[in-house]
Amino acid sequence: MQQYFIKGPCQNPIFIKDKETVKHMFQVMRLTDGDQVCLVFDDGIKRLAAVSDSAAHSFTILEDWDQSVELPVDVTIASGFPKGDKLEWVTQKATELGASAIWAFPADWSVAKWDGKKLAKKQEKLAKIAQGAAEQSKRNIVPEVELFEQKADFLKQVSRFDSVFVAYEESAKTGEQAAFATGLKACQPGDKLLFIFGPEGGLSPQEIQAFEVMGAQTIGLGPRIMRTETAPLYVLSAVSYALELDENNKHDVRRADQ
User: Fold this and answer.
1) H/E segment holding residue 22
2) What's the half-sphere exposure (Cβ side, CA atoms, 13 Å) at 19?
3) How many CA atoms lie less than 13 Å away from 177 in the CB half-sphere?
């Protein structure tokens, strides 16, 4: 069943006004009167709806669905600006893997240099990619996409999180393996987690020091060194396994929430 994210409040009937959504519904998918879809509004609740008038692009909401596929924790991925279209790839796949937000910032060793005008266009493009991926993967929310023109603005956001982890190549090289797993075991349902990744050249020693002063913990991601676009996907997969699939840890998380 097709799923669409709809801006605005839930009401009956609902008229679809977004031109791209209308085009996809009634031209690409050729919806007709009586066809059913899943609509997700700003409250993150999925609702079964049927086309009531295809000419007027209106739907009737039939019922609410008590269904959520979101991770038990909010995970924000923050990467130093990478080269090329790597951020597009990360946005799509991170959305499918459950990220709550995808951020990027100008790291010391970022080769890519984006000014405000280019950042605005890129952020708009990434937001569309995130929405498409969220619809495909049946998410309850569309992840927030934020590109920071100034690193200082990004740093101001770090204190918002319950835990901050920095994927650091030097930690991996020295064989550090426990910090990531230990950090995940300490998570409580609803915690806000921030994972920071460097660009192709990694994070500078000055950046690592600044993050640590702010309370971040450096972590290794196993014995292999990953590309900047691979590491966030590894982290999200590990979070999903630890908190959604690992029966022992799932029980621990449930007890913590009771």
Assistant:
1) helix 19-23
2) 0
3) 4
3-state secondary structure 120-180: HHHHHHHHHHHHHHHHHCCCCCCCEEEECCCHHHHHCCHHHCCEEEEECHHHHHCCCCHHH
CA 122 to chain centre: 16
Q: Which two tokens stand for residue 112?
A: 């890519």
Pairing of strands 101-105, 144-147: parallel
23, exposed or middle or buried, with CB in 10 Å at 0-12, 13-18, 19+?
exposed
pLDDT digits (tens, 9 = 90+) for 83-133: 999 999 999 999 999 999 999 999 999 998 888 889 999 999 999 999 999
Residue 98 near residue 236 (C-beta atoms within 8 A) = yes
Quick one: pLDDT at residue 223?
84
pLDDT in tens, 100-114: 999 999 999 999 888
What is the per-residue pLDDT across 168-191, written as a single tens digit (0 to 9) for each?
877 655 656 688 989 999 999 999
Say whether pTM exceeds 0.85.
Answer: yes
Instruction: State the sign of the Cα–Cα–Cα–Cα dihedral 249, 252, 256, 258.
Output: positive
- Domains of the chain, start order: 3-65 (2.40.240.20), 74-245 (3.40.1280.10)
* Dist. CA 176–CA 174, nearest whole Å: 6
